[in-house]
Design goal:
Elements: H1 15-52, H2 54-65, H3 91-97, H4 101-112, H5 118-136
Helix pairs in contact: 1-2, 1-5, 2-5, 4-5
Amino acid sequence: MSTVAPAGTPRTVTPRTISARTVTARTVVGRTAWLLGALFWSAFAVLEAVNHGWVAGLLAFAFFLAPDLTFLVGLSDAPRMEKGRLTPRAVPYYNAAHRALIPLALMVLHTVTPVTWAPAFAALCGWLAHISYDRAFGYGLRTKEGYQRG
């Protein structure tokens, strides 16, 4: 038998309910920030392509798609894996291609070294846009077993 508080009685708020709301709000804010970043990096990649020609556009598009090519590493194991799980053999490649610090560090290197090539910067913008869209839509790094990290 369940007990229901009479109408007008204030609800008891436990730390657990506050925590659940905070995590949800934090998730929404975080995903919104990632989406704004994704739109920024997409626009920057397009700007680089317009300013520096078709090679820059082609590389930006190729690097936008490239991180998900890591799924091909475990393609032969895919039929035996449960839905949403990545084969453990592909996890290190997937995680390496989906870490935002790698293209950011390469962007910094690109801007401080005397050797610069604009299409390379456009490619890095495309790569960072891909990572940002993934995070915005809830796809993050994987555990060593191949599951999404919580």
